Amino acid sequence: MATASFSNLPTRAFSPSYHNRHQSFVINNITRQIPNPHLINFSLTCTSSTPNKNKTCRPTVIFASGGGKGGGGSWGSGGGGGGGDDDAGFHNCTEAIFALAKAGRTLGDLPKDLAGAIEAGRVPAAIVKRYLELEKSPVFRWLLNFGGFRERLLADDLFLAKVAMECGVGVFTKTAAELERRRENFSKELDFVFADVVMAIIADFMLVWLPAPTISLRPPLAMSTGPIAKFFFNCPDNAFQVAFAGTSYSLLQRIGAIVRNGAKLFAVGTSASLVGVGITNALINARKALDTSFAGEAEDVPIISTSVAYGVYMAVSSNLRYQVLAGVIEQRILEPLLHENKIILAAICFAFRTGNTFLGSLMWVDYARWVGIQKIRE
Q: Mind listing the pLDDT tens digit for each residue in 57-87?
């Protein structure tokens, strides 16, 4: 049996009933069977010297290892090999439940995947607090009902703003880059320009979505799952993302994140290109039918070769650029420096993402000409 005590922590969101001064009372009591197995008894006792002031909390977490696994569990509460990750997992769980208790909430109030991740020690208290903050907004509260958004918003509360940035500036930066590269041929190559812009806009959302750092809330795979599926399942969504306490990623898993996202972006890029080029060719043919003089100036954009080329470009260039942007520049550099000033952080992220989108457009034009799917028109 072990006891961990925390004291002199200010309370909030408590509305206790009391009648006398200097009175102690239990605000919340949670008993939860944690898999491993461990039984956690969490009691939060508050004392107040006056009816409305100077309240302090003295929570006590009492846990005991049960049978199985030799009493060791997966959090290292017994002897023999829990390790640092095990201790971090148990610390995550107790601190997260404490954060919930302070807010007057329980695990039963949370989505099942988030509650399960807390019980497994994969979610630190900071993420629980972020969830409670996001819930205050009707928009975020609605988006948190969807697993994909939940995993990304908990890892980065500016994720939605970054989606808006990427899609909002997409049209302007793509068109500006096309004008910069094509210059006097811009008007002659409007069909290429239109195809490029349509493809880029369709892909912009996925370019933010797939490489975005996430909080892993997914339950473990079945034992019968193959080794390749298990390997990619355990890879992070961003190769460079920070691993929270209680989780860790090997170098091979981080490389696997690049490979997995590359495969997804190849499919996204190819599909987006099929749509964009198909629309472009339809418009070209419609204009040819109405304007005979235009027939000699324009030609159909090759659908298959363009789509495959764009898929390869997304899987390689876009994949690496956005992984570095989201995992290194934003999460590891900008957020630690500016986490207390969200407005400045969002503005700098906007500048980096605008520059990255413009750079990608320039690189696509050069790449398309290099592989021969677009030619310079005289």
A: 444 444 433 333 333 334 433 333 445 566 7
Encode pLDDT of 173-199 as tens digits.
778 878 887 778 787 777 778 777 777
Three-point CA angle 84, 89, 92, nearest 5°: 125
DSSP string for residues in 24-50 = EEEEEEEEEEETTTEEEEEEEEEEESS
CA distance 198 to 349: 24
> What residues form DSSP beta bridges with 238?
none
Using DSSP, how many helices (H) and how many strands (E) does the chain show? Answer: 13, 5
Tokens of residue 220, six digits: 């473990």
Q: Which 8-state DSSP code applies to residue 235?
A: S
DSSP 42-72: EEEEEEESSSSS-EEEEEEEEEEE-SSGGG-
Q: How many CB atoms lie within 10 A of CB 360?
A: 23
What is d(CA 365, CA 193) in angstroms, rounded to the nearest whole number? 10
CB atoms within 10 A of CB 20: 6
